[in-house]
Every structure is written in structure tokens, then in C-alpha cells.
């Protein structure tokens, strides 16, 4: 049962008000379903929006934030729990350990870094936790096109591409996170070996 959801998202709000509105929608659905939010601990951008809405609806929020970002005075001061760590890498490790599932919202380099590290761990079966994209305003369309290109060129397995849950509807996204199945590593590694020997 998925209880703790890690959200990767931007420390900016983006140019369109739609990003903020849809972040609020996701937070409301998570709160209604009594989920816990895990995120990067900031009080700015989409990070701050989703944390604030969760808190306003009495849902627990845990932030994990490196000391050097706290020093920039952007740490959220009203969370249920705020965990300070030494490095960005330590933040990612704790988020991945503590969460039951992951959702990437629109964001920048940091969001993509977190997303792809999580996808790699899922691919290698080091975690059995589903990963979704909250595709607000088609934000991830070009990224998905590139991943499709990676599949076509033989660098990503189609089954791994298909394991990424994509939706712009928060209800559907949470429903599908609960239905994800993991492909055993041994199976797809064996497939690669067979294909290379043909």
C-alpha cells in the first residue's frame, strides 16, 4: 500500500499559472487519500505550493534538505518534519529510502537528476517503487519523445519505458501508481544477451 509519496518538482513556479493550479490539485488529492508528502524541503516554487496545500489540509509533510540550501533561507519552517543533511546525494538517498512511490512534476535540472536516478534504481530492481510523471501542460512530452528515441536506438528496453506512469490527472496518477508491476532484472538482462548473440 502506497502511503508516502515523494514529489520531485521545481523550486520555481514556472511561467504558466497552470503549474501552480495543478500542483494544488495533486496536493488536495493526496491529502484526501491520507498520503504523506516527502519532498526537498523548500518553501519556494512548486515545492512550497504543494507543501503548503498539504499542510493546510492536515496532511503530514516531511522535507529533506541539505544544510547549504537551509543557509539560503529557503527551507520550509512549518513542516511536520524537516530533516537536514550534508549533501544533495544524501537528500536523494533518504527520499528514495523513505518513499513508497515517486512523482516528478515540472522542474529543472534537479528534478530530472532525481527522476533519472530513481528510474535507474527501479530498472535494476534495487527498489520496487513505482515512478510517475505528472505531465502538466504536456511538460514532459519532449522528454518522453527522447526516451522513445532511446528505445528505438536500443539503449532503453521498451518495458522500462512503459513502466513510467504518465498522466496529467492526479486521481489517475495515484491509481496507476498502485497498479505497477516490476520486471525482474534477470529477465531483461537475459533478453539483451540473447539479442546480442543473434
**CATH-defined architecture:** 3-Layer(aba) Sandwich
Helical content, roughly? Answer: 40-55%
Q: What string gives the helices and strands in order?
A: EHEHEHEHEHEHHEHH
Distance from N terminus to C terminus (CA atoms, Å) equals: 41 Å
Number of helices: 9
How are the strands ordered across the major sheet?
A: 4-3-2-1-5-6-7
Quick recap:
The protein has 198 residues and is α/β, with parallel strands linked by helices. The protein is built from nine helices and seven strands.
Structure description:
The chain has one domain (about 5-195): Rossmann fold, CATH 3.40.50. The protein contains nine helices and seven strands. The chain has helices at about 15-30, 45-55, 65-70, 90-100, 110-125, 140-150, 160, 170-175, 185-195; strands spanning about 5-10, 35-40, 60-65, 80-85, 100-105, 130-135, 165. The chain has a seven-stranded parallel β-sheet, sandwiched between helices. Strand 1 (about 5-10), helix 1 (about 15-30) and strand 2 (about 35-40) form a beta-alpha-beta unit. The chain is globular, with a radius of gyration of 17 Å. The model has no long low-confidence stretch (mean pLDDT about 90).
Quick tags:
198 residues, alpha/beta, Rossmann fold, 9 helices, 7 strands, 16% strand, globular
Amino acid at each position: 500500500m502506497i502511503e508516502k509519496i515523494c514529489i520531485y518538482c521545481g523550486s520555481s513556479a514556472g511561467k504558466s499559472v497552470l503549474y501552480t493550479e495543478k500542483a494544488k490539485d495533486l496536493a488536495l488529492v493526496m491529502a484526501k487519500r491520507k498520503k504523506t508528502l516527502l519532498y526537498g524541503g523548500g518553501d519556494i516554487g512548486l515545492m512550497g505550493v504543494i507543501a503548503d496545500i498539504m499542510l493546510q489540509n492536515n496532511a503530514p509533510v516531511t522535507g529533506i534538505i541539505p544544510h547549504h540550501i537551509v543557509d539560503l533561507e529557503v527551507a520550509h519552517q512549518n513542516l511536520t518534519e524537516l530533516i537536514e543533511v550534508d549533501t544533495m546525494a544524501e537528500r536523494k538517498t533518504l527520499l528514495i529510502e523513505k518513499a513508497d512511490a515517486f512523482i516528478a512534476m515540472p522542474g529543472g535540472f534537479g528534478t530530472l537528476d532525481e527522476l533519472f536516478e530513481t528510474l535507474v534504481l527501479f530498472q535494476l530492481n534495487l527498489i520496487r517503487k513505482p515512478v510517475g510523471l505528472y505531465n502538466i501542460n504536456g511538460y514532459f512530452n519532449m522528454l518522453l519523445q527522447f526516451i522513445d528515441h532511446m528505445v528505438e536506438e536500443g539503449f532503453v528496453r521498451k518495458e522500462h519505458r512503459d513502466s513510467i506512469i504518465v498522466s496529467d490527472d492526479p486521481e489517475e496518477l495515484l491509481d496507476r501508481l498502485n497498479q505497477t508491476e516490476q520486471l525482474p532484472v534477470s529477465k531483461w538482462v537475459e533478453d539483451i544477451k540473447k539479442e546480442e548473440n543473434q
